[in-house]
Amino acid sequence: MYQNLKVAVVVPAYNEEKLIARTINTTPDFVDHIVVIDDASSDATAAEAIGTGDPRLVLVRHESNTGVGGAVCDGHKEALRLGCDVSVVMAGDGQMDPAYLPVLLDPICDGTALFTKANRFYSRDSYRGMPRYRILGNVILSFMTKLASGYWHLFDPQNGYTAIHRTALRRLNLDRVAKDYSFENDLLINLNILRIPACDVPVPAVYGNEVSTMRMHKVIPALIAQLARGTCRRIVLKYVVFSFSPIALLLLAGLFLLLFGSAASTWVLIHTLGPSSASAGSVLLASLPILTGIHFLIGALMLDIQESPDRLAATAGGMDWRNRSSARGSNPATPVSSGSTSASRIPPSRR
């Protein structure tokens, strides 16, 4: 346990026979359970995990590959079933330094946040040795994820080194979170809809002999499409369905005025081609809605930034949620479900 909280480390693993044992062996002693999700690996990942002999190991084996998101979601469900208070995700390729696990857990333990994630880009030195195109790509992707998720104070959205309290996990519908490489981004969107307080923690990345199976030409277009859908879903659910917020009024009015002004501008432009000239009223009719619409959209954006559930907003609510959860006691076990994919669980007693 860590500060009276039962901790599970979820390790999604696909063909990680070379690194999975090191990941398990370097997991701190205060971790209660190490949940390894063998996502239908074709190598000896499962055998290497069992070979460590760690009594904390709980191995879940998928018969077909579900993607990194599917593996993580099943790991979180298993952590809930085991009665853990906090579920931490550490990749099976050894990129996430376990020495920083306490730093990731502290904001949850003191009630500051219910979700924490690592941030590799916390100083100027963090970019040292990284190609410029990757720096630009990370900045653009981070801004797009800020816009889509509403967590304007978070950076490095693709970093999967995260920790989440069981209170947030129980409120989250894991079956509706994306299962592919956009998992981290979609998870942030779903957490923001539920107004889960979150914060970044500076943690350097560890790069070694891992081999990425990501195909960027396929991942990037799918990720952009996922962020676009997520933005619309978050705005509709958070600001319209769950509470009709002034943000929704400003956003809808701004979009309407912007479209109306664009249509009026096009009409004026077409009818003034040649010797004709537009009257002052026509110009005002075309420009005023556009300027007002832009003003409304900026106002909606500023209010959305203020709505970002950061650690300051979490101080009052985060600890209260934890106390109510603890007072109710442990909930019945939550079974592991992997959709159409069957999974087999190997508990410590049968390894």
β-strand amount: 5-15%
CATH class of the largest domain: Alpha Beta
N-to-C order of helices and strands: EHEHEHEHEHEHHEHHHHE
Fraction of helical residues: 40-55%
> Which geometry do the CA atoms define?
elongated
Average pLDDT figure: 83
Main sheet characteristics: 8 strands, mixed
Radius of gyration: 24 Å
Number of helices: 11
Which labels suit this protein?
eight-stranded mixed sheet; 2 domains; 12% strand; alpha/beta; Spore Coat Polysaccharide Biosynthesis Protein SpsA, Chain A
Write the layout of secondary structure elements.
Layout: E1 7-13, H1 20-25, E2 33-38, H2 45-51, E3 57-62, H3 67-81, E4 86-89, H4 101-109, E5 115-119, H5 132-149, E6 162-165, H6 166-171, H7 183-193, E7 198-202, H8 216-241, H9 246-271, H10 280-306, H11 311-328, E8 343-346
Parallel strand pairs: 1-2, 1-4, 2-3, 5-7
Antiparallel strand pairs: 3-8, 4-6, 5-6
